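**Backbone shape codes:**
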Amino acid sequence: MSLEELERTVGELKDRAEIHQCLMNYSRAVDRLDRELLMTVYHPDAIDDHGIFVGGPEEFADWAIDMHTQTHLSHQHCQFNSTVELDSDVAHAETYFMFVGLNRQGTPLAMSGGRYIDRLGKRGGRWAIVERICVRD
């Protein structure tokens, strides 16, 4: 393996690790109601389409934190299989998720699952979500 191939491989591995960390930070931020961390997951002009909500990062953070605070005593967003296709400073990811929430009222337990379909961008050396579609399966 040439030095150029090694540098390219290490660069790709670094990009993949940073994308993975971005995706994991999403779950941590939403589950811990950590608005500051949630803002790092998105570029400022991003759009998140959660079906019942479509909007930018600031609005999404307000909506998600308020909804989970009012609806759940506790909740977990778990991410599983993830595929990432890299194309320079753009990445397309599909990540399976499961959600479990202990409800404040009504049915004690809420469960759902689906996929996050993401387009991420590397801007200023930082990977973050540019567009997310939450598909419930």
Q: What stands out?
A: The two ends are 42 Å apart (CA to CA). The CA atoms of residues 89 and 123 lie 8 Å apart. DSSP finds three helices and six strands in the chain. Strands lie at 42-49, 54-55, 72-87, 90-103, 109-123, 126-136.
